[in-house]
Amino acid sequence: MILGSHPRDAGGGESKASPETSRLFHKLNNQLGIVLAHAEMLEEKAVDEAQREHAAQVVSSVLDALGTSREIRRLSETGL
């Protein structure tokens, strides 16, 4: 997982999420991490403010998506 820690790593108890669900969250976070890295690179290398703003919008959206993924994972692991 790219961002955050897994609750079991911190002694958070047994996960209710299936191994397949955990694998899919891991895969999603890796894919979002790749998009984030490329967006940050585009933001750095932008030649004008419009390009920089567009790249920054992608960065912000990916960070939001990663947060949403973490929240869904947390809910799936607690059984809520």
Jot down its keywords.
2 helices, 80 residues, disordered N terminus, mainly alpha
What does this 3D model show about the protein?
- It is built from two helices and no strands.
- It has 80 residues and is mainly alpha-helical.
- It has one domain.
- Helix 1 packs antiparallel against helix 2.
- The longest helix has 30 residues.
- It is elongated and about 50 Å long.
- The N terminus is likely disordered.
How would you summarize this macromolecular structure in one to three sentences?
The protein is 71% helix and 0% strand.
Please write out the topology.
Elements (H helix, E strand, L loop, with lengths): L18 H27 L3 H30 L2
Helix pairs in contact: 1-2
Strand fraction band? under 5%
Query: Helix count?
Result: 2
Mean pLDDT: 86
The residue ranges in which pLDDT falls below 50 over 5 or more consecutive positions are 1-11
User: Would you list the SSEs in sequence order as H and E?
Assistant: HH
What count of domains describes the coordinates? Answer: 1
| Residue share in helix | over 70%
Structural class: mainly alpha
Rg computed from alpha carbons, rounded to a whole number of angstroms: 15 Å
The coarse overall form would be elongated
